[in-house]
């Protein structure tokens, strides 16, 4: 396999640098040169594509995501950031830091992943595009592996190996399990090899997938727009909808293990993130999308009503104090209160259930369907 080393520098023609590659972490751990500039490494003769970055549920991880994308994505024809509801000081900071290398599209209202991706895809000039959440860190070679897989398989969508810790697999492709109960179809998401340790490499092979997690997907742009693979009515579980649309159109979906992306699960929430996070994971907002999915495909995708439990737990990252007062002091106080509450709750199962029902009623937990276990 051949690679091209690109040295970007406007100050001097002669540039010395040394590069140390850390295999385990997959990052360039040291990069230095005798005068200003930056270096990217790309596989030769790889088709250019566009990268579209959107917020998943927080803004604070955007800068790190863009820094690594710029370092490890020489094949990108352009990087477009599409964000909704972003605080003005963050907009200014991102433009100042990345404005000459990233094109930003800002909207006043919050955008779900589908809305942001459709806006970005309509601006793309290349045949292929990657849509990626802003809480992902890409490893070197990630993009060329996705592009090569698409070229060799003709897939409408290709997804990478996704880690949720540097040594833990989040998913390596996905299966959509469907069972019928009383004449009704129930869908359940399966994350292949979830929780497995990931070392320097692995023996996973390229294979088809039922759908691809929304964390990171390479798509063929025109079919993605024409088929409307990103349904803007769905706030959560868009990955399953997307997979069913590609399948209905007869398009292949592929998992490519040579492409590795680290999804930084559970990064620290800041005051700037509170509004977006609460909107993104509001149980009633999510339920509306699930009902839309069921009307569209005649499949109940609530995992027999159990997904509401995940939502309740995930929402515990932000308590009611910062939800009312969106500030750093409220977040700090909330973390203290949560530690105290955990200790109090652990003393009594009755108390534990009481606090759960109190939170559940306010959050909309009981609006979700309930089925016999």
Helix content: 25-40%
Task: Categorize the overall geometry.
Answer: globular
Classify the beta-strand content into a percent band: 25-35%
Low-confidence stretches: 1-42
Cα gyration radius (Å): 22 Å
CATH level-3 fold name of the largest domain: Spore Coat Polysaccharide Biosynthesis Protein SpsA, Chain A
Number of domains: 3
Secondary structure tally: strands: 16
Verbal overview:
The protein is of the alpha/beta class. The protein folds into three domains: 1-44, no CATH class; 46-263, Alpha-Beta Complex (Spore Coat Polysaccharide Biosynthesis Protein SpsA, Chain A), CATH 3.90.550; 271-289 and 314-367, no CATH class. Helices cover 35% and strands 27% of the residues. Strand 2 and strand 3 form a beta hairpin. The termini are far apart. Residues 1-42 have low confidence and may be disordered.
């Amino acid at each position: 396999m051949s690679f091209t080393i690109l040295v970007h520098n406007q100050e001097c023609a002669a540039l010395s640098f040394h590069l140390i590659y850390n295999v385990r972490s997959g990052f360039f751990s040291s990069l230095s040169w005798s005068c200003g500039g930056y270096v990217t490494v790309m596989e030769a003769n790889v088709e250019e594509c566009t990268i579209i970055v959107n917020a998943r549920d927080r803004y604070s991880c955007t800068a790190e995501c863009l820094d690594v994308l710029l370092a490890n994505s020489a094949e990108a024809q352009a990087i477009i950031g599409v964000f909704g509801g972003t605080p003005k000081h963050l907009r200014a900071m991102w433009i100042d830091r990345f404005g000459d290398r990233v094109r930003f599209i800002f909207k006043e209202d919050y955008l779900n992943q589908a809305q942001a991706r459709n806006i970005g895809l309509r601006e793309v000039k290349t045949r292929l595009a990657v849509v990626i959440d802003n809480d992902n860190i890409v490893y070197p070679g990630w993009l060329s592996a996705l592009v090569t897989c698409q070229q060799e398989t003709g897939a409408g969508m290709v997804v990478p190996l996704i880690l949720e810790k540097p040594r833990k697999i989040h998913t390596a492709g996905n299966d959509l399990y469907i069972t019928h109960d009383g004449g009704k179809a129930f869908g359940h998401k399966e994350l292949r090899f979830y929780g497995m340790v990931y070392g320097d490499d692995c023996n996973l092979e390229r294979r088809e997938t039922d759908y691809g997690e929304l964390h990171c997907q390479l798509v063929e742009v025109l079919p993605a727009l024409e088929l409307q693979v990103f349904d803007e009515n769905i706030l959560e579980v868009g990955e399953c909808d997307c997979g069913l649309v590609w399948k209905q159109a007869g398009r292949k979906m592929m998992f490519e293990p040579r492409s590795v992306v680290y999804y930084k699960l559970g990064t620290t929430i800041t005051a700037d993130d509170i509004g977006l996070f609460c909107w993104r994971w509001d149980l009633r907002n999510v339920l509306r999308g699930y009902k839309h999915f069921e009307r569209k495909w005649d499949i109940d995708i609530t995992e027999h009503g159990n997904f509401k439990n995940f939502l309740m737990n995930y929402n515990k990252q932000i308590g009611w104090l910062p939800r009312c007062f969106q500030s750093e002091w409220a977040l700090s106080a909330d973390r203290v209160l949560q530690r105290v509450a955990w200790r109090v709750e652990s003393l009594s199962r009755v108390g534990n259930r009481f606090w759960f029902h109190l939170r559940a009623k306010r959050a909309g937990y009981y609006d979700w369907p309930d089925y016999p276990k």
